[in-house]
Write a structure and sequence with these properties.
By secondary structure, the protein is mainly alpha-helical. It has a two-stranded antiparallel ribbon. It is built from four helices and two strands; from the N terminus they run ααααββ.
Length: about 90
């Protein structure tokens, strides 16, 4: 059985994790569980913030995803690429 303290801890962790996924800063997250410093927050949650590789991957997915949507026969999206007629 989960105790009240366990439930509150899990709820704060879930809330902080959702805020991180939404782009919140370390200082914003620090306030959620009431950490004395941002260092404590980073020791617990650093793995949840996207790194440089994640940002690079997201940019490339967005670029390539836009190109992929126009890759089919008879697809009108292939007619205009970067403002020019194909």
């Amino acid at each position: 059985m989960i105790g009240i303290d366990d439930f509150a801890l899990r709820r704060r962790h879930r809330y902080a994790s959702a805020l991180i996924a939404g782009g919140a800063s370390v200082k914003q997250i620090q306030l959620v569980p009431g950490h004395a410093s941002a260092v404590i927050t980073l020791q617990i949650y650093a793995h949840l913030w996207p790194g440089e590789e994640d940002r690079t991957r997201a940019v490339m997915d967005a670029v390539l995803g836009g190109l992929r949507t126009g890759c089919g026969q008879g697809d009108t999206a292939t007619e205009v690429i970067a403002g020019q007629m194909a």
